[in-house]
Amino acid sequence: MNRASTAAALALFIAPFISLAAEPPASEGDRWWKHIEVLSSDALEGRDTGSKGYETAAGYVSKELAALGVKPVLKTGFLQPMALQSRRLVEAKSSVALVRGGQTLPLVQGEDVMLSTQQGDSGTVDAPLVFVGYGLSIPEKGHDDFAGLDLKGKVVVLLQGGPANIPGPLKSHFGSWTERVKVLKRAGAVGVVYLQNPKLLELPWDRMVASIRNPTVLFTDPSLNDSRGLKVGVVANVAHSQKWFEGAPHTYEELVTLANADQPLPKFDLPSRLKVKLSIESKPLKSMNVVGVMPGSDKVLAKEYVVLSAHLDHVGIGDPVKGDRIYNGAMDNASGAAALLEVARALREQPRKPKRSVLFALVTGEEKGLLGSKYFASRPPVPITSMVADFNLDMFMPHWPFTAVVAHGKDESTLSVPLSEVAAQQGVRVLADPEPDRNLFVRSDQYSFIREGVPALFFKFGYTLGSDEHKLFKQWLTEHYHAPSDDLSQQPVDREGAARFIAFLTAMTRAVADAPERPRWNDDSFFRRFAKPVTEPAKAPSSPAAKP
User: Is residue 437 scored above 50 in pLDDT?
Assistant: First the structure.
């Protein structure tokens, strides 16, 4: 559907769905799916950050929250606007090449590499290359890939992954771009080349190219852009990664073999320089979070909040796949937004309201680098220290029955206690993260809360390596992740499993909201250092504290 016809048809399309609460009774799974039908329709054009489709999605969930008794918490109502800028690479005016032995070897954008607009500005870079293993510096575990290396004025080349003996959440934290850029800037590096490990691939190269070609979005306020500061960022195609190692002491294949065997990776200078010309166009952009509160019933504890978060955006319109250019984002993440709406419904229908307040945060810009949740956590509508926990949903993957859950972050805080109790009550197994090198702990919106000291859990349907569920998930990544086929036609989707998961999340929310004590970081958790001093709730005021 083209943009002109979309604008004309939008009102007519959305109208029947504006208040699902008014429709005849439906099963929990069917109600959840009806939200997804709206949010991932072609009419919303993939809900790209700052787009008309995203604005329509924000209006829809705002109205649904209001119908479910959730109240605005901001002076701007349900919407928390933010000023952004969109950055697009002009490929025709940009170039990348290796210079080796006096010869310039051009690299083809879209085939050999993709230039990221997350780093750098228009201009040129000409710098030597050095391979730095995983490019991780983790002082707490005595691991430093940069020790003894002179990186000043150089571009580092690093391989995806990390040592198996380092816990997944810690490895993920130090592998985040915020932490990487901080270390590289301190060492004087000017750029980074990211090499993928075939074993850890999530996207085929053509979809990786389509994803990187989408404009990067940054905050207009530069103080919020803490993952920037290098002059160039490059992502290399696995199939052509050996080009970076011609004439070097080790081949790309040797390095991958060492990594997969969990053997130490060597560090060495590469016999090439990287020569890059960047041309980047910028334009202003606006988007918004949707935030509401279900006030708590206890006059004292209502001043504290359990946060339920899910990103509302997806990637919009992009390169066509089988003639389809709309990346609908049904599982990623209309599914999570829809689940939050249904948790709100379930809480409203319970005879006794939660003691603590429940904040619903449907955030923008997750696909652009956790922008909406970062803005929410750094410009909070209530004091950040009053947020006792965050439960985050992002493509929780309801493709098989809900009999097991992976809760990223469960070993870091006392949230493990209600998690175990609720899981036992509902006959759900709690599984460890089966693939810690995917770095999921830092790849969705819970990480924004964690960095501000709020204990958090990030939920997925559970699976074990090699299981049928694991195979189904890998197939989904290959066929649907960040593809137009993540739409309403995909199979299988287990609506009953989604309903059971919504009941599980509702129970988790109640357990934390009603607990006498707030959750806390475990004493041995690395992330405890982000916690902020907490003032205990004041004694109950004479007037109700239900209005935040």
Answer: yes
